[in-house]
Write a structure and sequence with these properties.
By secondary structure, the protein is an alpha/beta fold. It contains 10 helices and 10 strands. Strands 1-4-5-6-7-8-9-10 form an 8-stranded parallel barrel, surrounded by 7 helices. A two-stranded antiparallel sheet has the order 2-3. The protein starts with a helix and ends with a helix.
């Protein structure tokens, strides 16, 4: 299963699909209830039919209202690769991700001690899942690129997760860090993209895909937003 997530992103344009990952995040500390009364599995099927290349599920409960059960429901409802997003900090968390069906696991460097990150990274690989190594700063990017073996995909979070993404970060973070990622490593730009212009900037900076949740989940017509972003991606 390892590598499925990044391959889905990199292969999206080749088969005429959108290099867009939709983030199913029940609650945003910044924007409130996002899923509302909707069924996450039904949302996943709708996004799949809309042509997105992968999905992400936030499982952190305290601040984001997620759960492993939601991850399992989404995985069972679609053939798309699914990323588990959470503050993972132990081998048990990694194993639970595999048991729930995740194809990829978020490894957020700002929330994992430097001494522990390489071990968790290797554990994810050993479980044949793909680590999405998330960075927000230049220092974190340098650390990520020093992992062995080298990462197949880097996530650039435009907001500061240590502040629960309540900061005013924007796609400028991707614009500053993406050009420093070596060729051959996939780049996923995450968060703070609410408009087609934001998405276009991320692709212009070198992102291979974008992860968007709030803009889609808050929309009265999520499919229309996905179609608009898809048009941007096709032109980017």
């Amino acid at each position: 299963m390892s590598g499925v997530f990044s391959r889905a992103i990199l292969g999206a344009r080749e088969v005429g699909r959108v290099p867009l990952v939709v983030d199913i995040k029940p609650v945003s500390p910044r924007d409130g209830d996002l899923v509302r009364s909707r069924d996450p599995a039904a949302l996943a099927r709708m996004f799949d039919a809309a042509g997105v290349c992968a999905l992400s599920v936030v499982t952190e409960r305290e601040h984001f209202g997620g759960s492993l059960e939601m991850l399992r429901e989404v995985v069972s409802s679609t053939s798309l690769p699914v990323l588990r997003k959470d503050f993972l900090n132990s081998p048990h968390d990694v194993d639970a991700s595999l048991a729930a069906g995740a194809a990829a696991v978020l490894l957020t460097l700002s929330t994992v001690p430097d001494l522990e990150a390489p071990g968790l990274y290797r554990r994810i690989l050993a479980m044949e899942m793909e680590p999405l190594v998330e960075v927000h700063t230049l220092e974190e990017l340098h650390f990520a690129l020093g992992l062995t073996p080298g990462p197949t995909i880097i996530g650039i979070n435009n907001r500061d997760i240590t502040r629960l993404e309540k900061d005013d970060g924007n796609v400028g973070i991707t614009e500053s860090l993406a050009p420093l990622v070596p060729h051959g490593v996939a780049i996923l730009s995450e968060s703070a993209m609410l408009t087609s212009e934001d998405v276009a900037r991320a692709f212009a900076a070198g992102a291979d895909g974008v992860l968007i949740g709030t803009a889609v989940l808050q929309a009265e017509n999520p499919l229309a937003v996905i179609a608009e972003l898809a048009e941007t991606a096709a032109g980017g």
